Amino acid sequence: MSVNDNLLEVKNLTTEFRTDNGMLTAVDAVDFSIGEGETVCIVGESGSGKTVATESITGLVKEPPGKVSGTVELEGKDLQSMNKKELRQVRGDNIAHIFQNPQEAMNHCYSIGWQITEALQVHQDVPDDEARKRGIDLLERVGLANASARFDDYPHELSGGQKQRAMIAMALVGNPDLLIADEPTTALDVTVQAQILKLLNELQEDYGMSILFVTHDLGVVAEIADRVVVMYAGKVMERGDVFDIFEEPSHPYTQALMECIPDKGRETDGIPGTLPNPYNTPDGCRFAPRCDHANEDCTIGDQPEEIEIERNHEVSCVYYQSGYDSSVVRDSELESDSSSTEMGATDD
Amino acid sequence: MGMAQYISARIVYAVVVSMIIVTASFLLLYFSPNPNIQAAAQQAALGGENPEEAVERVKEARGLNDPIHVQYMQFVENVYTLDWGWSETRSEPVTDAIVSSFKYTAQYSVPWTVLSVLIAPTLGIYSASRMYTWKDHLATGFAFFGYAIPNFFFAILLVLVFGVWFEIFPITYDTTVPILSLENAWQLVLPVFVLVTGSIGGTMRVARNESAEFMNADFMKTAKAKGVKPTRRYTHHVLRPTLVPLSTSLVSALFALFVGASVLVEEVFAIPGLGRLLVQSIISQDTSLVLGTTLVFTFVGVVGNLVEDLVFTMIDPRISYDDR
């Protein structure tokens, strides 16, 4: 996919928060792009900056205390330079969000119908009866039975899955080009999760929209993603097509995440250690303190540059730089084809 | 259980509460000495007649020899048919005295209530949206001032400064001015200002603290993501859930002031309203007038709580109509 096809182009995105303890950098110079009709997953454990990164795109991060820098271009238009009114138009019409907890994401004082059609009323001045009709159509489309009656129900009268369906209807009402879904299935039980993912896949085909999907669940990634961005402590560790990431996880962090998938019939203890202190991130690779393969080169300088190890597959790890033996960090089952010289210090 | 049933249940509840109040008033009156009998006995003694006979005559004429339940039924009937007796000190029916005083009370109570209902939530939400900035601190300082300063004292200060020193506002209330005139509005400025400051002090803090909870709620993020303007986010998404706890404290603050502070404020500004009527009737021991005025205050309280209960169900759909 060529760069020109990209719907959304995020470059050097940095989000900091001014707190009582000093500056906290949640997202640190992150790049990613989303093509038309494509699904990109941002993966990483809790606290790695995935949510902040997606909320920085449309300026949902509260400023202050937040501070977002870098460029976000939607179809070539820079969102950062837009005034508030233009940005609201983008939020209502071009980019929609759904959130992790549909219970909290809805206002308990208003009917779901009111909340679904609010964006229409605010942006397009659609007459009430027409807005209602569109709302009911959408509720039907997202698979809520008896939609015309449910339209006037309040959030507390719906189950968790129904609420998330209503949230999706709310997001679709402006016919968005991009749907940002922040862990939309995490708060739901497994069977409902699968239904919602299926629904999102269907809707994506119907509406031709792109999806930016945030999750910590690699099972979900395999289900829905075209491309994957692996984030850790505010930095991108690895990115690539979903097939490449699963077949050939190349960054030790990605490999560690894969190890954590429980359904492989082996025990998982999680990844030992914790995320680095966000006020004082370590030099070198952010993952180095928890990495089995870390050597002293991993703990100096900045996060290593991303190296393209194959087409559209980039890894931020010193072992892929020239002068290192990348086989050290590669899974044994994978066929190694990188040009490497021997410099490896440790072995597994 | 539906909404209609809920509403009728609340109304029945309000009637029951008012019955309890009426019964308590009756019992208090029944066991207290009757000034009319004492007056009759005194007059008879002074006129050389037999006081015992005079007492009997009055008792008979007023039905005080009837059994207690007959007297009670008569009392209840009179209360609900607004036959509240004769005010000796004012030489007019109690209801007439109340209606004419209520006219003056309403003149400052209506603008005061409307202003409090408008200002307290607005100021509270404004404060919460700018929490810990100097604007918030200023609003909070204003609220604490209004909350802390005794209303009557504040009223006296204002009369002294703006009435006596600067002579901007009249010192005493002039009843001869037509109700719907600029002059009348002008002379009501200070009393309304004092009462508004008193009532929004506490309620503005409730509005601020309750709405702070919703300011950072996830649904505010959803609204922002939908492209909703900040003002609409506050007026729709924050205000409505805030109104549930806020209306409770607003009703009680308004009512507490209506009964308590208005008496003092009416005294300070010489407004011949209900509060003053109550005080004067107590001082002159005009029992029927005391009872009548008290009943007005209690009924306002009962009706206020009823309205609040009904408003709740409209504000927050989660409040169940099931029996409580």
Task: Explain briefly what this protein structure is.
The complex is a heterodimer of chains A (348) and B (324). Chain A has a domain of 71 residues. Chain A contains eleven helices and twelve strands.
Description:
Chain A has a domain at 105-175. In chain A, the strands form two sheets. In chain A, strands 6-7-8-3-9-10-12-11 form an eight-stranded mixed β-sheet, with helices on both faces. In chain A, strands 2-1-4-5 form a four-stranded antiparallel β-sheet. By secondary structure, chain A is an alpha/beta fold. Chain A is 30% helix and 23% strand. In chain A, helix 4 packs parallel to helix 7, helix 5 packs across helix 7 and helix 7 (160-172) runs parallel beside helix 8. Chain B is mainly alpha-helical and 324 residues long. Chain B folds into two domains: 3-88, no CATH class; 94-315, MetI-like (MetI-like fold, Orthogonal Bundle), CATH 1.10.3720.10. Chain B is built from twelve helices and two strands. In chain B, strands 1-2 form a two-stranded antiparallel ribbon. Chain B is flat, with a radius of gyration of 25 Å. Chain B starts with a helix and ends in a 9-residue tail after the last helix. The relative contact order of chain B is 0.13. The model of chain B has no long low-confidence stretch (mean pLDDT 85). The A-B interface holds A 55, 58, 60, 62, 88-93, 96-97, 99, 101, 104-111, 115, 118-119, 122-123, 154, 156, 167, 170, 174 and B 216-219, 221-229, 232, 236-237, 240-241, 315-318. Chain B: Keywords: Cell membrane, Membrane, Transmembrane, Transmembrane helix, Transport. Chain B: This is ABC transporter permease. Chain B: It is a multi-pass membrane protein. Chain B: Belongs to the binding-protein-dependent transport system permease family. Chain B: Pfam families: BPD_transp_1, BPD_transp_1_N. Chain A: This is Nickel import system ATP-binding protein NikD.
